[in-house]
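Homework-ish question, so no full write-ups if that breaks the rules, but can someone show me the predicted structure for this set?
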Amino acid sequence: MDVLKKAFKKSIWVFHLSTAACNNCDIEVLELLTPRYDVERFGIKLVGSPRHADALLVCGSVNAHAKPRLLEVYRQTPKPCLVVAFGSCGCSSGIFRDSYSIVGPVDKVLREIDPDVKIVYVPGCPPKPEAMIEGIVMGLGAV
Amino acid sequence: MIKEVMKDLKGKLKGKIIDIVQPRVNRIYIRVEPKKAPEVIEYLFFKYKCKLCTATGMDMREGIEIIYHLAREDKNMIINVKTLIPYPKLEIESIGKKIPAFRWIEREINEMLGVTFIGHPDMRRLILADSFPKGKYPLRKSFKHSDVTDEDYDYERSGI
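A: Not a homework solution, just the prediction itself:
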């Protein structure tokens, strides 16, 4: 656990990944960067590559087309990392659960390759920006 | 104006269609056999200057019904050409062979409902994932979501 505490001591850099989301959650992520919420004052920053990220922010019910991409991005993220399943779809596949192309929510897909993955669930359609900040903070508190 | 069109089409398409009705003021339904469908649609498209809006496929349990929606804008009306392809041999001559506008919608009907379009020049997947199992058609009435599980997907084909 000491390694985890050390890894998450400083600013959290987040890579935002959309796996078959309806785009509403992605718009809401943008809201976090506006002056009203401005998460960069906490050091939470969106980065362009998963190799630079401490946390993955995954929006959307994962479908068959996005699953290999999600696994590949997770492989490229340096461990230890935190995964945030964002929105109702990320937490449980939401209303698309019984659709023909859905292969499961984020946690089910990621646990296939890493059973110990640390996942924070932020439900909502879309979640409020406050909820997302709280989700990341809670995730950090858990490690 | 639509009465003239009805009269004209009745004369020109005699023997090629099953029936022709006018349910509403700006709409004509034409029912044809699958074998005669390309001929009728090509007549409407080239000679009658109709435009393709879209085509829809639907599982009617006894077969797949394809409706071609054609619009004639200057006369302000829509002509729907319906054709029912009975199970189990779901085959129809491709119209995209001659008219490129039909190609994409024929690809979509092919992968979602399993209708074979004979002579289509480019029959790749359009909207389903590349890893989706072959021979499963999600918009048929007999399809259940449990028919396709995670093990059925071939992720080798997904390009990563």
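Now go work out the reasoning yourself. Hint: The domain at 2-142 of chain A is CATH 3.40.50.12280 (Rossmann fold).
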